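Lecture notes, part 5. Sequence design as translation. It can be helpful to think of inverse folding as translation between two languages: the language of shapes and the language of residues. The source text, in structure tokens, appears below.
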């Protein structure tokens, strides 16, 4: 006899595309995707980011066109990050809460043109700070409580401009509660907070810092971003963010932190977001350019894995290309 008797043969459930698709547990939809975009001041500017081929810094008219094209493809959520001229940076990130800064102007115009687009804004000092840190620096230290009013003011400026969701990416203690208070006291009870809950001190942010010229001028971010060896801290951060009023909990980066996504999804009733960051994008792009990996396959596989781990919202620089593929 050449065949063994086996009651269970899992391969029977893989024998046809029809069966495979019927029992497939995880589908990524365009609705799950949130597209991070870089914006800059000026007119008709479109600058490709060297370490992120296919991703650009856009000035106002061009970002409006980009968002319009994405909305037509079903991408409805966007994160905006400002590339601020060095001459506007200072120790206290003054430009971050200037009501007439180009970032708030762009938010205002995007929301006026496309009210249906969900705009997630970034709250952290680093794009505006001459120190390149997410918090206020004094004597080489990153100060926590002194940073909170700056973050609160920044969040308020963004809410006034029409932001739908505020995204504190700075990792100061207590900032979610602080921002929630500022928003509520000013009548913005409907503005949401997507907290960068478990944001790790990661090597994967390199290309993003190129995009914004926001790398720290000294030291690293390890006194505020989390140690990638830890998961218990992520659960603590999640508990605090929930208590402080977060609407979404984010894990960042994504692919190297699927266990963290899973832990947060199991522990919380809030929706979980995950950020497939610049370095994850760059790795895939670089390998694909060399012909070593198939880009489309890797994008599908990584996004599916991130959703399988428990993320319902995925921030990804592949959002537009994914949506274009689904539309074909
Ligand atoms: C900083 C911030 C970073 C990212 C988003 N907000 C980088 C950092 O912490 O230095 C990274 C996003 C990416 O790499 O795609 N507030």
């Amino acid at each position: 006899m050449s065949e063994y008797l086996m009651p269970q043969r899992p391969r029977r459930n893989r024998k046809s595309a029809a069966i495979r698709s019927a029992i497939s547990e995880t589908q990524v939809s365009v609705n799950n995707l949130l597209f991070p975009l870089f914006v800059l001041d000026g007119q008709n500017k479109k600058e490709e980011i060297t370490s992120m081929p296919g991703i650009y810094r856009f000035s106002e008219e061009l970002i409006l066109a980009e968002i319009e094209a994405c909305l037509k493809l079903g991408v409805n959520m966007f994160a905006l990050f400002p590339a601020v001229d060095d001459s506007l940076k200072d120790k206290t990130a003054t430009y971050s809460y200037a009501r007439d800064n180009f970032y708030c102007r762009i938010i205002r115009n995007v929301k006026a043109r496309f009210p249906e687009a969900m705009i997630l804004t970034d709250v952290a000092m680093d794009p505006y700070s001459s120190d390149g840190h997410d918090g206020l620096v004094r004597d080489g230290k990153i100060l926590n409580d002194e940073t909170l009013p700056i973050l609160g003011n920044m969040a308020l400026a963004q809410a006034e401009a029409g932001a739908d969701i505020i995204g504190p990416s700075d990792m100061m203690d207590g900032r979610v509660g602080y921002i929630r208070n500022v928003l509520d006291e000013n009548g913005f009870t409907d503005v949401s907070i997507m907290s960068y809950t478990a944001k790790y001190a990661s090597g994967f942010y390199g290309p993003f810092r190129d995009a914004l010229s926001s790398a720290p001028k000294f030291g690293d971010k390890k006194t505020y971003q989390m140690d990638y060896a830890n998961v218990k801290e992520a659960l603590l951060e999640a508990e605090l963010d929930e208590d402080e009023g977060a609407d979404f909990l984010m894990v960042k980066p994504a692919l190297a932190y699927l266990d963290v996504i899973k832990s947060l999804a199991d522990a919380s009733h809030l929706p979980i977001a995950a950020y497939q960051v610049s370095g994850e994008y760059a790795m895939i792009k670089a390998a694909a350019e060399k012909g070593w990996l198939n880009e489309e396959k890797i994008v599908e596989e990584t996004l599916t894995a991130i959703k399988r781990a428990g993320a319902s919202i995925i921030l990804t620089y592949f959002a537009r290309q994914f949506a274009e593929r689904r539309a074909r």
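The translated text above is only one of many valid answers, since several sequences can fold into similar shapes. Residues 295-309 form the longest helix (15 residues).
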